[in-house]
């Protein structure tokens, strides 16, 4: 499914983000940048040792990537030239500022992409796997954040894909985008 907000094209695709043909993919990392399972494990395996090395350097020099912020590395062996790593919030029932932190992941990733002249990016569904954020709520935060940035004419990549792994996640994002 595709939808346009001002000059920003949003595409919802079901698949594996490590195969995306875009300038940069976003990784749903952890704040320590230590690597884990889920999409993080898949991206690190596909990207290879250069990606792991750059993450280790960032951890050594700046202590990691606080929840809601984003850092950039090479894409290593991926088609994508860059990986933007962002740490989403762990869902704790919605009382720990999770929506603001999740929105910040999308904003900071998009601003970092724009700063690096990146025009096309692909996001996974941040926080909705191991971190347990309810999918429909997370889809709403993700898509509304991008819609608002587009409407306020922020400089962000003009092609924004969401590459969603499973049927349930894909269908939830389609429902939310249809209504926005
Ligand atoms: N392509 C696209 N999406 C994927 C892929 C893939 N190859 N593999 C999994 N997903 P998760 P989180 C989906 O758990 O909730 C890690 O250990 C998955 O189905 O990867 O933000 C990190 O190191 C789900 O819809 O990320 C952190 O410690 C979505 O990606 C922690 O998990 C996100 O699930 C982050 O947890």
What is the N-to-C order of secondary-structure elements (H for helix, E for strand)?
A: EEEHHEEHEHEH
CATH superfamily: Leucine Aminopeptidase, subunit E, domain 1
- Please list the strands of the largest sheet in the order they lie side by side: 1-2-7-6-3-5-4
Oligomer: single chain
Q: Detail the poorly predicted runs.
A: none
Please tell me about this protein's structure:
The chain has 180 residues and is α/β, with parallel strands linked by helices. Helices cover 40% and strands 21% of the residues. It has a seven-stranded mixed sheet with strand order 1-2-7-6-3-5-4, with helices on both faces. Strand 6 (120-123), helix 4 and strand 7 (159-164) form a beta-alpha-beta unit. Helix 3 (98-115) crosses helix 4 (135-151) and helix 4 (135-151) packs across helix 5 (167-179). Bound molecules: ligand AR6. The site of ligand AR6 has 25 residues, from strand 3 and helix 1.
What is this structure, in a nutshell?
The chain has one domain (2-179): 3-Layer(aba) Sandwich (Leucine Aminopeptidase, subunit E, domain 1), CATH 3.40.220.
């Amino acid at each position: 499914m595709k939808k346009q907000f001002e000059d920003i094209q949003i595409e919802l695709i079901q698949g594996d983000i490590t195969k995306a043909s875009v300038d940069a993919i976003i990784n749903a990392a952890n704040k320590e940048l230590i690597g884990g399972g889920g999409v993080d494990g898949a991206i690190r395996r596909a990207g290879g040792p250069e990606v792991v090395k750059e993450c280790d350097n960032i951890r050594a020099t700046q202590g990691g990537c606080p929840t809601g912020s984003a850092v950039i590395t090479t894409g290593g062996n991926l088609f994508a030239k860059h990986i933007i790593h962002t740490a989403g919030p762990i869902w704790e029932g919605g009382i720990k500022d999770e929506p603001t932190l999740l929105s910040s992941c999308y904003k900071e990733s998009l601003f970092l992409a724009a700063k690096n002249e990146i025009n096309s990016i692909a996001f996974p569904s941040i926080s909705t796997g191991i971190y347990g954020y309810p999918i429909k709520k997370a889809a709403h935060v993700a898509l509304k954040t991008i819609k608002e940035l587009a409407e306020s004419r922020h400089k962000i990549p003009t092609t924004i894909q969401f590459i969603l792994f499973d049927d349930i996640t894909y269908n939830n994002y389609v429902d939310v985008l249809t209504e926005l």
